[in-house]
């Protein structure tokens, strides 16, 4: 059951404290030493007109909010059933400050993103074996395969060092969630708006001692002395020829360059980067042709939607750009009719669900909202919040399109970033705007800023950290504008604190507490009944089913109602049938 959906209220009033300002300011300046830590808000130099719902001044309002939430929680019944389908969303770099700032970007504090309305929440500790602050490769390994390993490495044990060219693949590599799903007979799919060979998506189908080995030219550059037959297989090749990749029913993302040889231009007239002269898109078609399946490759939105609507293809590969996909705001700017623009994340998710839904055996779909991270890396806060918005929409679409009775949706992030949400901005202030003016250098600063990154050069005059730039005239509406950053770095870094885990659907109650990140896929596997790897039978025997059903007490079934009972009956029936 979803918590009450909360909407932005149109009823917003404003008032001014102008009459009291001069008095308090005077008092404050005499006692500046008293509370530097929590300056009197009325002494603020910037925007001192708070905007909020008048009811917030009435204590009963807050008591009612609390009562309603308490009621929601006491009404909540754990759905202990197993999920037929599971959709796992990762917002790359979607830190908790990013989520909080996105609420403000979409309206105010009151906005609740689709996944924030999920009833269960936990936190994931994201460190990897050799780093306090992780990258997307070791975290993907953790949340997809259930094992923590080293920074920069995909599904290879921590005993192997990064970029090692020759190692015992058999002994150190492992597979995860999508393989478990495939072994249990479920359909599988993969969606991202980054290169499909980038660390996060690659974590679902590839093993590599180096996340940068996206095509053979990158393997060759690192493994110059390794004989060809012992060279590790590049990530793009693993997607096309690997055990997991071959079975993916739908693959949607970007990064064509790693599938095309140098000299071959893609649909956007961008050169391929492979050095082995192999066209892996053709190879993909051939692999599935040989498997006797109808396979289709698409490279634009129209053909994607056509293929997904018709449901006449068994396998669908869609690549929509040479490197990462366009940012959401860049897609909006494309000077062509909407139908001819690049597909957005939510449109790709919709197409993937069309390919997977309605199957008897169920499916597991892995989705990455990958550009939240890349926008943060360049200190472009507005761009990142917009990507988080699109991620939220994709999850809303998935939750609306699927049934809460049979589809588990888990949303998390791989790691945090250095985005900070701070100052003491007044209610109603633009979260992407200026928070206040510093009492020390008398210059304005923004509510959002970063601990490090390229924004440094837009923060200090000539890089002199004692001399800030006056940002008054910065165009903070322009998504290319970099936000302030304290330490100069060519790319802003990830952050090391925990990230959220949000869950809805069957067995969603398992996703609670402060967890090691590698626990997540084990919970999903258990919830989706695909954990034969852990000794749980993928197809429960009729007796097990009976046990399952009787352990659900009547008191639990009654309030959920007849509809659930009949769904359960259908489910039991199907499993008994399948076992025969
Ligand atoms: C928050 O949402 C609730 C429920 O829709 C609404 O009643 C209330 O006015 C909103 N408050 C603000 C500050 O917008
Ligand atoms: C593609 O890249 C290769 C190698 O970098 C270069 O030699 C070739 O001229 C490029 N082809 C085109 C059409 O740009
Ligand atoms: Zn990153």
Your description of this structure?
The protein has 20 helices and 19 strands. Helix 9 packs parallel to helix 11. It has helices at 18-30, 59-75, 96-105, 136-145, 169-172, 177-183, 199-202, 216-222, 235-241, 243-247, 280-290, 301-310, 328-333, 345-356, 371-377, 381-401, 520-527, 542-551, 554-560, 562-579, and strands at 13-14, 51-52, 85-91, 120-125, 187-195, 250-254, 295-298, 315-319, 363-369, 407-413, 416-417, 419-421, 434-437, 444-446, 448-453, 485-488, 494-495, 499-504, 513-516. The longest helix is centred in the C-terminal third of the chain and has 21 residues, at 381-401. It is of the alpha/beta class. The structure holds 2-acetamido-2-deoxy-beta-D-glucopyranose (NAG) (2 copies) and zinc ion.
Task: Identify the notable features of this structure and list them briefly.
three-stranded mixed beta sheet; 33% helix; disordered C terminus; binds zinc ion; ten-stranded mixed beta sheet; 580 residues
Strand arrangement within the widest β-sheet reads 7-8-6-5-9-3-10-18-4-19
The secondary structure category is alpha/beta
User: Which spans have pLDDT < 50 for at least 5 consecutive residues?
Assistant: 1-28, 541-566, 574-580
Tell me the helix content: 25-40%
Ends distance: 34 Å
Shape: globular
Q: Could you tell me which ligands this complex binds, including any ions or cofactors?
A: 2-acetamido-2-deoxy-beta-D-glucopyranose, zinc ion
Average pLDDT: 89
Q: Strand count, sense and closure of the main sheet? A: 10 strands, mixed
> How many runs of DSSP E, i.e. beta strands?
19
Radius of gyration: 26 Å
Q: Which percent range describes the beta-strand content?
A: 15-25%
Count of discrete alpha- or pi-helical segments spanning 4 or more residues: 20
